[in-house]
Design goal:
- InterPro entries: AF0060_NTP-PPase_MazG-like.
- This protein has 117 residues and is mainly α.
- The chain is built from four helices and no strands.
- 9% of the residues are buried.
């Protein structure tokens, strides 16, 4: 038996598109309701970040330290992925939309001194 190395990570936007296609293929609710439910997924994920922060700080006396900061990081990644998939649901060009938005925010926030420009 030969040990196989894991495949190299796919490009972020290729992965987002693949996740979107996977969700679209098997979604139990379609149309406008399905679109709204896809957007609501973000609220669910943000709630999981809050739960992890509360658990990492021990703020729930019944549960104590139930999470770690690594858990918070993972939940934040879930928020980002869910947001990117939601964006892909709204446009076939999520990368262009996102990069354009990041440029506008950088220009507004950094006074036109966007990194890498």
């Amino acid at each position: 038996m030969t040990d196989q190395l894991p495949a190299a990570p796919a490009d972020l936007w290729t992965t987002v598109d693949a996740l979107w296609a996977w969700l679209e293929k098997d979604q139990p609710v379609g149309g406008r309701e399905g679109l709204l439910l896809r957007m609501l997924k973000l609220s669910e994920e943000v709630g999981e970040v809050a739960e992890a922060v509360i658990g990492a700080t021990g703020q729930n006396p019944r549960k104590g330290l139930s999470h770690t900061w690594d858990d918070v990081q993972a939940e934040l990644c879930d928020v980002v992925l869910s947001a990117l998939v939601a964006l892909r649901t709204l446009t076939p060009e999520p990368r262009a939309v996102f990069e354009g938005h990041v440029e506008r925010v950088a220009a507004r926030s950094l006074g036109g001194a966007a990194p890498g420009k």
